[in-house]
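FIELD: query
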Amino acid sequence: MDLAGLITFLIIGALAGWLAGLLMKGRGFGLLGNIVVGVVGAFIGGFVFGLIGIVTTSILGTIVSATVGAAILLFLVGVLKRA
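FIELD: result
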């Protein structure tokens, strides 16, 4: 991955983490937290979308997939915290 690809990946991760934070708890996690949540969410979203046969090819699709994955991650963390 070149530097431009890495920067794009981090920006998408930050955006996805921020969006998932807004959806799941009403606020983000700060820049670093958003990046971590978004990057992990991108892997989860890619896996889940792959299971149901959805392929994302655009940046918007990638953001949606990463946001859905990040929301799933935040949901699971919330469930585990309550247990």
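FIELD: remark
The mean pLDDT is 91.
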